[in-house]
Each structure stands twice: as structure tokens, then as C-alpha cells.
Amino acid sequence: MNILVINAGSSSLKYQLLNPETQEVLAKGLCERIGIDGKFTYKPTGKEAVKEADVAMPTHSEAIQTVLNALVDPANGVIGSMDEIGAVGHRVVHGGEKFASSVLITDEVMAAIEECNPLAPLHNPANIIGIKACQALMPNTPMVAVFDTAFHQTMPPVAYTYALPYEYYEQDKVRRYGFHGTSHKYVSQRAAVMLGKPIEELKLISCHLGNGSSVTAINGGKSVDTSMGFTPLAGLPMGTRCGDIDAGILEYLMNKHGYNIDEMLNILNKKSGVLGISGVSSDFRDLEAAAPQGNQRAQLALDSFDYNVKKLIGAYAAAMGGVDAIIFTAGVGENGPDTRANVVSGLEYMGVKLDAEKNNTRGKEVDVATDDSKVRVLVIPTNEELMIAMDTAAIVKA
């Protein structure tokens, strides 16, 4: 069964057509600047990418129609007809407490997703637009919603409850939700395969490190704690996001500089993180280039990031009563040997020993711990699209 995976943003749409059984990607690409001037990229496997500018995409419907046209195009298409698409899997950022797993999309499900819009105002409305556009163009094709938050619904109350007046949880659903769940779920399952053990027997710490970053404690295949919170702003310092800070700082800066809440949130979301510390860039590669040239703020940004990842690993090992493997994934985790080395340095007391030669790798699935390390250190490239496709296929077949 071929699954079309859609990840819709407010003005963009990522897509992949793949077979979850064979794990073969038939084609993938991106629609950008929807509603502006439309830019379209289409890459069929084994062929040159097709890039087009100024494609008419006033709405997501035209963007998805452009994707479907490319998939069945006589010259560059990868399927003979739309009938070869068995289902569509949609990434949905926030499912609140309503969804603990992926689900077949119905009118009731759509209404429930819309109820979660206030929890993810930048993401859920765009995800809904993508779903509705696909439904209009493919009315007879099953649609499945796969939620970033679903994997974390196994967290116990002690991990997700904030120390606020309890009525804010009861009435307003203010709690820790966590994100990157599809990624953490995928790499934890791959880790079990690499270790040759049932996932139910493993204590894992998954480090999804990139422009957006989160760390998750996974005990027996279930998320028991995670660093992102009510929103993706919490936890680690990220590319442009501040991560955990003293909330009193907001009042102090707003009073001193006259910021309103929108301006303050813009600073916390888009001007902070390693960009804010370094003043150089939100891209870790730029920081790694600047630091050896004597840029002390770039070095501080890198050190701060690594230090905070290390602290979370120690905290989650304590929460689970041990750890069998530490997983590094996403752009920085997969491709940053220096980051991995700095993060695990000092964790020898936990039984972590890194093999420097093995660690000199990028983007490959490999165990980079020494043979005698009590805790394995795994590099696992994430594949959220494959996880979405696998969930979608399983639900449709059921």
C-alpha cells in the first residue's frame, strides 16, 4: 500500500509518497510560499529533482493538486493513477488529551482537532487546512491524523502536572504535552531492534536535537517524561527558542522596555536560543565554524546547549532508575559528533563510554559506545514520515 504523507504549514506543504512495508520512498518534495508566488519541488526517487517557481498556489488545494499531478505525470510520475494511493497520513501537531494514538479522520475527529487549535495556534489550523484540501480532492481515500503529542500521553500526572492552581488544568487543560512524539517513537523502536531486545525491557533517553530540540525518557516503550511542555517553547535552548527560563523575566523585561505580550513572545520564540546567546546564527553549523575563530559567544551558545542536554539525561536516568541507551537523532543529533561527545562527557559515572572513532560519523544508524560501555550510545536518523506512513497503513488495514 502506498501512503501519501502530508505535513502542512501555514504557507508550505511537505509531502512524501512511500510504501511503509518496503520502506521505499517513491517521491518527495515541498510546496512553498502558498498564497504568495508558489514554489514547487518534486523529487522522484532515482531521478533529478524538478523545481518550479511561480506555480499558481493561491491555497493549499492548488498545492496538493500540483503534488497529485506530479505523482501521475507521464514523464516524471511514480504511479499510474490516483488509485495507487491507499491512504493519506497527516501530521497534526497537537491532539491535546483527546488523542493518545493516531486515528482515522472523521467529522468528529476534525471537530476535536479544531478544539485543540488554541493549544497550537500556529500549527493546528494549517494542519486542518491540509486535511480539508486533501478530503476535497481525494474524497474516497482514507485519511489518518498522526499527532506529535500522542506518544507523550503515557506520561504520568507527576510528570505532566504544573505547580499552578489545579483549576487551570481542569478547566483550561494547562499541562505538559510534549512534542516530537513521532520522532521519539520511531527512534525508540529502532533502538530496540539495534539492541536486539524487546522494547518493553528497555530504558531509553531519546535526544531529538536540531533547530527544535527535545529530550524524552522512554521506559518500556512508553514516554514517561519529556522536555517540551504546554508549548514547544519549553525545555532546551534551541535555534531561536529560549527553552526553560524564569517566568519573572517576562514581567521584568516587559516593564523595563515596554513590550506587550506579543512582542515578548516573539523575542522568546524567534530571537532567543543559540541565536540570542551567540548573536551569530540559529544554525549550529555556523556556530561550530565561528567558535574556533575565537567567537566566545558562539562557543558559549554551543556549551550551553550541550550542558542542558547533559542535565536532562541525568535527570531522566534518575527518574527511570537507570538507562540502557542514549539515542541521538535529528539534524544536530545525527550529524554532530562534537555535540554528542560533549553531551556524554562526564557521564562516565553512569557507565557511558564513547568510542571517538565510531562517533566520527554523520547520518548513519550506528552504536558509537565502546564495547565495554554499560550504556549504549546510539545514533539513529529519524524518519517521521515513515512512522506516519506505518501508523496510517496499520489503521486503514484495521
Describe the structure.
This protein is an alpha/beta fold. It contains 15 helices and 14 strands. The strands form two sheets. The protein has an eight-stranded mixed β-sheet with strand order 5-4-3-2-1-6-8-7, sandwiched between helices. A hairpin with a 4-residue loop joins strand 2 and strand 3.
Keywords for this structure?
single chain; 398 residues; alpha/beta; eight-stranded mixed beta sheet; six-stranded mixed beta sheet
What is the topology?
Elements: E1 2-8, E2 13-19, E3 24-32, E4 39-44, E5 50-53, H1 60-71, E6 85-92, E7 103-104, H2 107-115, H3 124-137, E8 143-147, H4 157-160, H5 167-172, H6 181-195, E9 203-208, E10 214-219, E11 222-226, H7 248-257, H8 261-270, H9 273-278, H10 284-290, H11 296-320, E12 325-329, H12 330-335, H13 337-344, H14 356-359, E13 366-367, E14 376-379, H15 384-397
Parallel strand pairs: 1-6, 6-8, 9-12, 12-14
Antiparallel strand pairs: 1-2, 2-3, 3-4, 4-5, 7-8, 9-10, 10-11, 13-14
